[in-house]
UniProtKB/TrEMBL annotation:
Keywords: DNA recombination. This is DUF6538 domain-containing protein. GO terms for molecular function: DNA binding. Coiled coil: none annotated. Residues 14-70 form the DUF6538 domain. Pfam families: DUF6538 (PF20172). The keyword Mitochondrion does not apply. The keyword Repressor does not apply. It comes from Rhizobium loti (Mesorhizobium loti). One of its GO terms (biological process) is DNA integration. It comes from the Bacteria. The lineage of its organism: Bacteria, Pseudomonadati, Pseudomonadota, Alphaproteobacteria, Hyphomicrobiales.
Length: 453
């Protein structure tokens, strides 16, 4: 009875200190271990006016009632997120910006606070309207590991929809690694407790690998930037998903100078002709892997693009035989293409045409297995001394194709189209006739011994 009577008192939980009112309230015994504020809640109301103090007190009281109720119920993170998002929408419908109670009391003028209080007149103390208007629904406090799971399961679900199983796996693994580094350095902290110092600790971890005080770097600036960017994006998207896009991002503006971006050196044309196209040089490879290497050299298409071609995009019966690099739109078996400009058609000439005559259905052995393909090819090239220097990789064949087109004086726009690079102007039509593309590529076609196919 004593507590109920206390809660009916007009000046309940109010104390005067000098001429100013304070909110003062005892935390329930059973919650003192989980409420970080200890035995009592104390807060200045910054007013000498009793009526205004009562209004501010009501907001604090409602906030504590909601907090203690959720603590007693052991509300799970998913339920907390749903409740928080509903409160944001309900506040907006009533003409208010949703803010946590502490922000309302600090940031808003007293007239606006009184308008919020007036909007709750006639509502039960625990109603959704009171929660929304008075900011008494606590933000969910997911740990960063939980936030990453939410990110994968909900926030970017539409983005993942068009990726193949392998693309999803590799995309998720990169972001998981960024979060794993954070957890190793700082701990699996709730998102709301991540500080700028935490972000700087992760930044220093990558800095020490990119630019160590002694010794050689073991990571590139682009690796550090990618990992910091993953954390920055996760944090920003998480709070946008909750309805708080204004949340200050502790990972903002933490990056690394990357003035030494390396371009893989191209293979010299005579090296491709005399060493890679030499009979027997690729004989130890399986048929699909060998076909991909040869088609790569004469089309410039990325190995991942070639590995995922199928009979529906290999056009040998057209006037100009060609391949179409495009997304796989089968909802049961989707696959993204790297960029919009990567969607293109490439005429087949020279050894590439002979390869696809032997592989009219593509290279199913490496469908969605480009990581395995890359490892195999680079190992073969290294073991058989097919690299001119230790700076070359199999991917250098793509740069060789581009250089051969430049040296053959092919039109720049055609070169960009065939490579899948962005063209800096509005795109009109196909950019030329396929027959003309074929004729241009014949200017740079490499001779080959049919036995290598």
């Amino acid at each position: 009875m004593g507590r109920r009577r206390e809660e009916q008192e007009p000046d309940r939980f109010l104390r005067l200190r000098g001429s100013h009112f304070h909110y003062y309230r005892r935390v329930p015994k059973e919650l003192r271990d989980v409420d970080a504020r200890g035995e009592h809640v104390r807060r200045s109301l910054d007013t000498t006016d009793r009526l205004k103090a009562r209004t501010a007190r009501d907001l604090h009281e409602a906030a504590d009632n909601a907090l203690w109720s959720s603590l007693m119920l052991g509300e799970n993170p998913e339920a907390a997120r749903i409740r928080y998002q509903r409160a944001i929408k309900r506040a907006e419908a009533l003409g208010f910006v949703y803010r946590p109670l502490a922000d309302i009391l600090v940031a808003e003028p007293l007239d606006t606070i009184l308008q919020r209080a007036e909007a709750t007149i006639g509502e039960p103390a625990s109603s959704p309207v009171v929660d929304a208007v008075t900011g008494t629904v606590s933000r969910p406090d997911d740990k960063i590991s939980e936030a990453l799971k939410l990110y994968f399961d909900e926030i970017v679900r539409d983005e993942l929809r068009t990726k193949s199983a392998d693309q999803k796996k590799r995309w998720k693994a990169k972001r998981q690694m960024s979060v794993d580094v954070f957890i190793t350095l700082v701990g699996d902290k709730p998102m709301g407790e991540i500080t700028r110092d935490d972000a700087r600790a992760v930044h220093k971890y990558w800095l020490d690998r990119i630019a160590p005080e002694k010794g050689r770097p073991d990571r590139s600036a682009s690796t550090g930037n990618r990992n910091m960017g993953n954390l920055r994006t996760l944090y920003g998207d998480y709070y946008r998903h909750l309805g708080s896009p204004e949340q200050k991002n502790p990972f903002a503006d933490l990056s690394f100078s990357d003035k030494s971006k390396r371009r893989r050196p191209p293979f010299p044309t005579d090296w491709i002709r005399d060493r890679i196209f030499a009979p027997g040089a690729l004989a130890a490879l399986n048929d699909d892997a060998r076909g991909i290497v040869l088609a790569f050299a004469e089309t410039g298409a990325r190995p991942s693009e070639l590995a995922n071609l199928h009979d529906g995009v290999i056009h040998l019966d057209h006037e100009v035989p060609h391949i179409s690099v495009q997304p796989r739109e089968d909802p049961e078996d989707p696959r993204e293409i790297k960029t919009a400009s990567s969607v293109r058609k490439i005429p087949l000439v020279g050894v590439a045409l002979e390869v696809f005559k032997r592989h009219p259905n593509g290279f199913p052995r490496y469908k969605d297995r480009e990581a395995s393909l890359s490892a195999l090819l680079n190992k073969h090239f290294e073991n058989h001394k097919l690299f001119p220097t230790d700076k070359h990789t199999v991917y250098s064949l793509r740069h060789s194709f581009e250089d051969r087109m430049k040296n053959g004086r092919l039109d720049e726009e055609l070169r960009r189209m065939l490579m899948g690079h962005t063209i800096d102007r509005p795109k009109y039509g196909e950019g030329g006739d396929m027959k003309m593309w074929q004729e241009e590529l014949m200017k740079i076609v490499l001779p080959f011994d049919p036995s290598i196919v």
